[in-house]
Design goal:
With 182 residues, the protein is mainly beta. The chain has one helix and ten strands. An eight-stranded antiparallel barrel has the order 1-2-4-5-7-8-9-10.
């Protein structure tokens, strides 16, 4: 093969592969790039135990801590802080169990504020907990987020949304949550 043909094939390959690689890399979710969340969540009551906020992407592909559903209202930006765990040990009732999926979600209309955690999530922080098949919703307490939502804390009571009257106290703090790129 002539050196001219080799250079032509190399040029074609380079111009075809590099843009495809660039497009593929640029469309990765923010959770797949550098990610360093931290913190912990302690549950007491019907569910008990302390879980560390994962510093990386969980095996299910979800980041340990991320922000979703970002919306803007006037000059305020709000959304949902979602902290997830896979296959963790918690005490459920009186039994130690491995729970396949746990999600703690905190929905606020504007980041950078403190909110009362009650059942009226339209003007307050709506906090929910999914632990296996059990779901809980906030009834009292306080949730606070930083201006961007990447860090915050909460301390409050959640009540079962099912037929039981079980309650869970949640004390949480987090930092470095993955933000969506817009």
């Amino acid at each position: 093969m002539s050196s001219r043909l080799v250079r032509l094939l190399a040029a074609i390959t380079t111009t075809a592969v590099i843009p495809v690689a660039f497009v593929a890399l640029s469309t990765l979710p923010s959770s797949a790039t550098s990610y360093h969340s931290s913190g912990s969540v302690t549950f007491q009551g019907a569910i008990s135990g302390t879980l560390k906020v994962s510093p990386s992407v969980n095996s299910g592909g979800l980041p340990g801590c991320s922000i979703s559903g970002v919306s803007r209202s006037g000059s305020s930006e709000g959304g949902t802080i979602v902290i997830t765990w896979n296959n963790v040990k918690l005490k459920i009732g009186a039994k130690n169990e491995t729970v396949s999926f746990v999600e703690l979600s905190t929905d606020v209309s504007a980041f950078g504020k403190s909110y009362s955690m009650n059942e009226d999530a339209s003007s307050h922080a709506g906090v929910s907990l999914l632990a296996g098949s059990a779901t809980y919703s906030s009834i009292s307490g306080t949730a606070t987020t930083a201006n961007t939502g990447v860090s915050g804390s909460e301390n409050g009571e959640l009540k079962s949304t099912g037929s039981s009257s079980a309650e869970v106290k949640v004390t949480a703090h987090w930092a470095g949550c993955a933000q969506p790129r817009v």
